[in-house]
Amino acid sequence: MGGLVEIRWHARGGQGAKTAAILLAEAAEAAGLFIQGFPEYGPERMGAPILAFNRLSKSPIRVHGHVEHPDIVVVLDPTLIGKVNIADGFPPHGILLVNTPKDAREIRRMIGIQGGKVFTLDATGISLAELGRDIPNTPMMGALMAVAPDIIDFDTFISATREQMGKKFKGNEKLVEGNIRAINRARQEVKGE
Asked: pLDDT per residue over 52-74, tens digit each?
C-alpha cells in the first residue's frame, strides 16, 4: 500500500457497514498502519441509508471528516443504486465493489462510471449460507481483501478480525467461525472487470 487509502461504505442501517469499517480499521492497526474507521449517520433507523468510512495510511492521518474522493467504494445494499450517488467523487483509478449477483459490466452501466475497476459478489447469498441471515458485511470485507490485496496482509487481517469478533461475540464461536468462512468464501467468489 502506498500513501493514503480512503474507503467509503454505502449500506442501510443494520447491514453492518459501521462494524465492517471498525473491524477493517482494527485489522489495519494490527498491521501497523495509521487508521480511521467511522460511520456517518444521524437519527436514522434500521433500513435507512448510511455511510461509513475508512482511511488507512503508513503515515499519520491529518485529515478529518467524511471521505469525498474514495479510492474504494463498497456497496452493501444494491437497492441504494439510483437512490444515492454511489459514484460521487469516484476517481478514474477507483475500485467499486457491489453486493449483487449481477455482472460487473451491468453494474458499471447502471451506475454510469467509465473508469476504474468494478467488482461484484453475492454477499447476501454467502451470508445466508454461512450465517443463516442477511448481514453482508463480512463477505464484503473478504471481497475487499481480494480486490485490494495491498491494503493489509490477508493473514494479519484474518487474525485481527477473528480476535475482534471473538470479543464482540464472546461465547459464540460458531458465529465467529461462520463469519471467517464467509470472508474466505467471498475472497474466492468475487468477480470483476
From this structure: 999 999 999 999 888 999 999 99
> What's CA 93's distance to the chain center, in Å?
18
Angstrom distance (rounded) from CA 54 to CA 61: 11
Sheet holding 117-121, edge to edge: 34-40, 49-57, 5-12, 72-75, 95-99, 117-121, 191-192
Give the H or E element holding residue 66. Answer: none
Tens digit of each residue's pLDDT (9 = 90 or more) over 111-133: 999 899 999 999 999 999 999 99
pTM (predicted TM-score): 0.94
> Is residue 101 helix, strand or coil?
coil
CA distance 92 to 142: 23
CA torsion sign, 118 to 48 to 52 to 175?
negative
Domain boundaries, the chain: 5-192
Pairing mode, strands 72-75 and 34-40: unpaired
* Angle subtended by helix axes 137-147 and 123-131, to nearest 10: 130
Amino acid (1-letter code) at residue 36: Q
Place of cell 467471498: 186
Which CATH architecture group holds 5-192?
Answer: 3-Layer(aba) Sandwich (3.40)
82: left (phi over 0), alpha (psi -120 to 50) or beta: left
